TrEMBL record, chain A:
Provenance organism: Danio rerio
Entry keyword annotation includes Electron transport: no
Record-annotated Exosome complex component RRP40 N-terminal domain positions: 16-68
Domain K Homology: 167-215
Lineage top rank: taxon: Eukaryota
Cellular location(s): Cytoplasm; Nucleus, Nucleolus
PANTHER family in alphabetical order: EXOSOME COMPLEX COMPONENT RRP40, PNAS-3 RELATED
GO annotation terms (biological process): axonogenesis; brain development; cerebellar Purkinje cell layer structural organization; chordate embryonic development; CUT catabolic process; exonucleolytic trimming to generate mature 3'-end of 5.8S rRNA from tricistronic rRNA transcript (SSU-rRNA, 5.8S rRNA, LSU-rRNA); nuclear polyadenylation-dependent rRNA catabolic process; nuclear-transcribed mRNA catabolic process
Entry protein name: Exosome complex component RRP40
From TrEMBL, chain B:
Protein name: Exosome complex component RRP41
Taxonomic superkingdom: Eukaryota
GO molecular function list: exonuclease activity; RNA binding
Organism: Danio rerio (Zebrafish)
Signal peptide: none
Xref: Gene3D superfamilies: GHMP Kinase, N-terminal domain
Localization per Swiss-Prot or TrEMBL: Cytoplasm; Nucleus, Nucleolus; Nucleus, Nucleoplasm
Subunit annotation: Component of the RNA exosome core complex (Exo-9), composed of EXOSC1, EXOSC2, EXOSC3, EXOSC4, EXOSC5, EXOSC6, EXOSC7, EXOSC8 and EXOSC9; within the complex interacts with EXOSC2, EXOSC7 and EXOSC9. The catalytically inactive RNA exosome core complex (Exo-9) associates with the catalytic subunit EXOSC10/RRP6. Exo-9 may associate with DIS3 to form the nucleolar exosome complex, or DIS3L to form the cytoplasmic exosome complex.
Domain Exoribonuclease phosphorolytic: 21-152, 155-219
Family as reported in the entry's similarity comment: Belongs to the RNase PH family.
Pfam families with a match to the protein in the record: RNase_PH, RNase_PH_C
Keywords: Acetylation, Cytoplasm, Exonuclease, Exosome, Hydrolase, Nuclease, Nucleus, RNA-binding, rRNA processing
Amino acid sequence: MDSSVHTSLLERIGDVVLPGDLLFSFSPPEAGDANPKADRLICGPGLRRSGAEIRVCRAGVLKHKQPNMYWVNCQQRRYVPAKGESVIGIVTAKSGDVFKVDVGGSEQASLSYLAFEGATKRNRPNVQVGDLVFGQFTIANKDMEPELVCIDSCGRANGMGVFGGDGLLFKVSLGLVRRLLAPQSDLVSDLEKMFPCEMVVGMNGRVWVKARTVQHTLILSNLLEACENMSTAQRHTLFRRVADGGI
Amino acid sequence: MAGLELLSDQGYRLDGRKATELRKVQARMSVFAQADGSAYLEQGNTKALAVVYGPHEIRGSRSKSLHDRAIINCQYSMATFSTAERKRRPHGDRKSSEMSLHLKQTFEAAVLTELYPRSQIDIYVKILQADGGNYSACVNAATLALVDAGIPMRDYVCACSAGFVEDTPLADLCHAEESGGGTALALALLPRSGNIALLQMDARLHQDHLDTLMEAAMTACKEFSKVLDSVVRQHLEEVSDLTRD
């Protein structure tokens, strides 16, 4: 990829891009090029290649990650399964040796009864229709049915599996989920200071919360839903009022 | 009594616009919290509300699903209070079914359905107040709703109506101009590529005039795309300002 093209792309980082926008056109690598793979560009969500052009297909803010990954950050509510992502699902049916799990995507995911820690043909996991499961995708391909597992690569549960005897499950936007799962999330630390709680956040926009009392659980869920359209300053003001007992 | 003079000697229309001048467009995105995407659009006195759900599992029979792409399901309806005379059937009549089909064909040209096989995308559009250009208002509102839902598209779809009065092409017709008995053309355009998603014409028109009429409609569509651009940009800037921690 030409360095001038790369520079022009970097200038657009943080800009709002719209469907149909042409990000750039590139020429095929010449025969004399030493290593064409070194300049390879990775198109993330919201970008697509058509011929020799990279075009935008979703409205949002153009983002970049070193060295050469680009994507469009957009506020989306509907989840599209992706391999390796951890999600909260609801068991909807049991058909043979697999459970059907609703993850909020375009089709239900399958979860094998052997995909739990310590599960064998004799020792089956206790999973009922309606249970909440926290798992991750091993297969998430647009042409195949998504597959969930509740164990990591070592065969350990590692926090996954059936959960949620009490607590409250609700849905938020995928943008808010990404903010909650950020490594140093101000939002989560502010909430934990006010009400100590258990929280399970799925990349599919589902959040499960359990605090000491039902009242605290409901307050937490309302606060999280309110945070979706608030600036940092507005959020701090709201949290201060809640902490002072003003609401 | 003589009929309404649709175009004055000075070149002004009934509502004071020039021949190629568009009505004032106002739009808002994310008007419903529960839907995946929603938009409200006013095009003069025509007001449309669009809501998008999906991509989601196919409702009802699984046999309807397509293995290689998503199904786009459109439903057009008019509020009972949208016209001067109360509508008996808000949707389900022949005209609404035809409009739903046109919307489906239009958005199949723009949405990247191949990214979501065995899925369904629902687009519901309601006309709250009708004053001509219903199809174009629906398309423009639904485009904003699809953008709000984050559904990948090749390009915007912008639509506009155009008519022909006294050898003059008129863009963005109001109700009086549409019901005047002349030619009415509806055009849906993918503005960046210049591809036509849908072209529909009522009444007869001489072949010599078709190019000028289409040119007027395409120019109007490109103007609409600038308006929609600014609406989306403004909305995204507001959202990104709020979510910037």
